[in-house]
Amino acid sequence: PPPTPGAPRRSMYDPDELAEEQRERNLRQQLNKAFRNFVQKTELVAQSEPHSSALEFDAPSRDLSFHGRALREMVEISPCRDCIVSLSENPPFVLSLDDVEHVHFERVIYGAKNFDIAFVLKASAVEPGQDEVRMVTMVPMQHLDTLQKWLVDVVEQLYTQGTRAMNWKTMMAVAREPSFYSDKDEDGEPKPIGWAFLMDSTEGGEEEEDEEEEGEAFEADEDDDDDDDDDDDD
User: Fold this and answer.
1) Residue 117, exposed/middle/buried by CB under 10 A (0-12, 13-18, 19+)?
2) Distance between CA atoms of 71 and 74, rounded to whole angstroms?
3) Domain of life, per the record (predicted)?
4) Alpha carbons 104 and 161: distance in angstroms, whole number
5) Are 77 and 83 in contact (CB under 8 A)?
6) Domain spans of the chain, in order of start
7) Is 85 within 8 Å of 71 (Cβ atoms)?
8) What is the C-alpha to C-alpha distance for residues 20 and 222, in angstroms, rounded to an integer?
9) Each residue's pLDDT expressed in tens, for the chain with a length of 234 residues
10) What are the helix (H) ranges across the chain?
11) Taking the CA atoms of the chain, what radius of gyration do you get in angstroms?
């Protein structure tokens, strides 16, 4: 019902809800402060004698955070200096960048909304029964340039990209062959070195399309010339 004329207006927000939100903010600040103190004290102990060690804490970069499907569901994923993590949901997703041999961006198509990222693990980092490739899928396209720049500038990790989703079981069988990082195949023929073939296959496809278009254009020109010759004969 409409408010009674002259009656005081009620707040749009419940005071109890506002108080609860304020308590949550205060608790979050207290936890952040307590953890910051824990980090500082732990690093001091680790650096002091006789416990001297290279213990360091890593922190997620909120500016680089993005959403994607890791493990079972869509989560917020945050790159760090040495890893990428998603810690807000269970089970947590943690991938050490030291374990990554190569990064490939899949389904990078002009006009598409999402792309996938394949993190190929080093053979030494793969436990028995563990997948050799860790996937993060359904990443919004607006994060592509930022993530690629982060890989090159911060992680110093080269990457490739393509328009298709790859069959990684087949790919890894090829990648583990002794000649994978050679510039020649078993028959001595030149071939792309290592993961470069993922980029070469994409570029090759574009070149083939360009050649086909040029061929079609050339055929069309010939037809036009033939028509002109017929007109001249007339």
Assistant:
1) buried
2) 9
3) Eukaryota
4) 5
5) no
6) 19-57, 62-199
7) no
8) 78
9) 555 555 555 556 678 888 888 899 899 899 889 988 988 888 887 777 665 667 778 888 888 999 999 988 899 999 988 899 998 888 899 999 999 999 999 999 989 999 999 999 998 888 888 899 999 999 999 999 999 999 998 888 889 999 999 999 998 988 888 888 888 877 788 888 888 888 744 443 343 444 444 344 334 444 555 555 555 555
10) 15-47, 144-150, 168-175, 196-233
11) 28
Amino acid at 233: D
Q: Are 59 and 49 in contact (CB under 8 A)?
A: no
Architecture in CATH of 62-199: Roll (2.30)
Count of residues making up the chain: 234
Burial class (CB in 10 A: 0-12, 13-18, 19+), 209: exposed
